């Protein structure tokens, strides 16, 4: 799936005019895991709602698989099947009496027969690590917070989107729940080749998962590159008031204290440990 944004502007009229997005030009290919970061109000949520067709830009074009979704009379339902959007705290979207009915809701709206609906429910629950027979008849409201979130994501996956967008999906989860979610997103991208756009303020998640990082500031796209490129630009990130992954920040601090040759494009503890040991041996 190919997505292209051309000269996108979006403005809100509240008490005064708010420029949510300013001249965004962006292409996204089907092989990417994109981390989308920026402070509250930077335009992240507005951008992903534009991609799903929930709102239309004030100006500009959005083209998805050759279809201009900003054109008049475009079939947005077709687009929303291709691009799944999981909002922050997706468990708040649960509403049916059983897990099966909740996950089946989307596929049924595609006018699929019940055999196909059942197949999609089974497949999507398996994708998120839930056993179909054990959970299908349970009330989603009696599940743990982590399980509820998985069910909500399964409901989006049951639509078989080509692109999955998630807005702060790990918010409110305990460390175990966050690790499970990270594993799920990793598998969806690297094993099932799904394009993923992840909004998160947890830079460790972005560094671990993303193949490309987009940084928004006051509606403008100010950085666009690999995690190594973006997180190595410490000065710019500090100017924007954004954190680096914790281990990367430690390596930058070591460089400031005289470890001139130490690499700063590292995001895992194991890699950082090896780099620090290597640097110490150089200094002996």
Structural summary, described in words:
With 284 residues, this protein is α/β, with parallel strands linked by helices. It folds into two domains: 3-236, 3-Layer(aba) Sandwich (Rossmann fold), CATH 3.40.50; 245-284, no CATH class. Helix content is 41%, strand content 22%. It is built from twelve helices and ten strands. The protein has helices at residues 44-51, 76-82, 99-108, 114-127, 132-135, 145-157, 175-190, 203-209, 227-232, 234-239, 246-256, 269-283, and strands at residues 3-13, 17-28, 33-37, 59-64, 67-68, 83-86, 163-167, 195-199, 212-217, 220-225. A six-stranded mixed beta sheet has the order 6-7-8-3-9-10, with helices on both faces. Helix 3 (99-108) packs across helix 4 and helix 4 packs across helix 6 (145-157). The longest helix has 16 residues, at 175-190. It starts with a strand and ends with a helix. 36% of the residues are buried. The model has no long low-confidence stretch (mean pLDDT 90).
Discrete helix count: 12
Number of domains: 2
Question: Helix and strand succession?
Answer: EEEHEEHEHHHHEHEHEEHHHH
User: What would you call the structural class?
Assistant: alpha/beta
Tally of extended strands?
A: 10
CATH class of the largest domain: Alpha Beta
Overall shape: globular
* Main sheet: strand order: 6-7-8-3-9-10
Strand portion, in percent? 15-25%
- What characterizes the major β-sheet? 6 strands, mixed
Q: What is the CATH topology descriptor of the largest domain?
A: Rossmann fold
Low-confidence stretches: none
Radius of gyration: 21 Å
Q: CATH H-level name of the largest domain... which superfamily?
A: P-loop containing nucleotide triphosphate hydrolases
The CATH architecture classification of the largest domain is 3-Layer(aba) Sandwich
Mean pLDDT: 90
Distance between the ends: 52 Å
Helix content: 40-55%
């Amino acid at each position: 799936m190919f997505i292209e944004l051309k000269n996108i502007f979006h403005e809100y009229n509240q008490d005064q005019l708010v420029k949510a997005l300013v001249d965004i030009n962006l292409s996204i290919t089907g092989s990417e895991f994109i981390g989308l970061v920026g402070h509250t109000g930077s335009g992240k949520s507005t951008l992903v709602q534009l991609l799903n067709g929930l709102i239309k830009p004030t100006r500009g074009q959005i083209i998805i698989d050759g279809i201009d979704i900003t054109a008049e009379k475009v079939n947005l339902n077709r687009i929303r099947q291709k691009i799944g959007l999981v909002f922050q705290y997706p468990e708040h979207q649960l509403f049916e009496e059983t897990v099966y009915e909740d996950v089946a809701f989307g596929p049924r709206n595609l006018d699929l027969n019940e055999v196909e609906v059942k197949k999609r429910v089974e497949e999507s629950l398996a994708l998120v690590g839930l056993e179909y027979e054990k959970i299908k008849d349970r009330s989603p409201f009696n599940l743990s917070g982590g399980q509820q979130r998985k069910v909500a994501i399964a409901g989006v996956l049951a639509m078989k989107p080509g692109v999955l967008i998630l807005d702060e999906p790990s918010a409110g989860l305990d460390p175990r729940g966050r690790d499970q979610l990270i594993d799920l997103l990793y598998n969806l991208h690297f094993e099932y080749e799904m394009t993923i756009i992840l909004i998160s303020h947890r830079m460790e998640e972005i560094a671990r998962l993303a193949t490309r990082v987009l940084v928004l500031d006051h509606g403008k796209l100010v950085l666009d590159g690999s995690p190594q490129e973006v997180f190595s630009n410490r000065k710019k990130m500090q100017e924007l008031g954004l954190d680096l992954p914790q281990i990367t920040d430690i390596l930058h601090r070591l460089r400031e204290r005289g470890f001139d040759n130490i690499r700063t494009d590292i995001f895992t503890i194991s890699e950082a440990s090896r780099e620090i040991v290597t640097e110490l041996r150089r200094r002996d």
